[in-house]
Specification:
It is built from 5 helices and no strands. With about 110 residues, the protein is mainly alpha-helical. It is elongated, with a radius of gyration of 23 Å. The two termini are about 15 Å apart.
Length: about 110
């Protein structure tokens, strides 16, 4: 039983890592530029507070009196704010294969 589990785990690890490293070479060049851009484009505390205040203003607005064009402009502004905060590095992404690998390791070790 232990041998079968070990072989299945090893097979899963080999299959998942080969696909993970296959596209890694193409991303290396773009990752380096993205990392340097991310370091240069950090938001300051003033900008974050200004964006937060603006989002709160938009949420408290009475939107029933606005035209559809004005509403779409507000939506675009909120999306731009969200993308600038997201670009600032406020998120951590964990891939599906990595998550499964961590869960399996936890099950095996515990």
């Amino acid at each position: 039983m232990k041998k079968t589990t070990f072989i299945a785990f090893l097979l899963f690890f080999v299959v998942s890592t080969s696909t993970a490293f296959a596209s890694n070479t193409a991303k290396n060049a773009s990752d380096n530029t993205a990392k340097s851009d991310a370091k240069e484009n950090r938001l300051t505390d003033e900008e974050i507070s200004r964006m937060t205040k603006r989002v709160e203003e938009i949420r408290t607005m009475d939107k029933s009196e606005l035209t559809s064009v004005e509403k779409s402009e507000l939506r675009k502004e909120l999306k731009a704010t969200k993308s600038s905060v997201k670009k600032d590095g406020g998120y951590v992404y964990i891939g599906g294969g990595t998550l499964i690998l961590v869960i399996i390791l936890l099950i095996i070790l515990l």
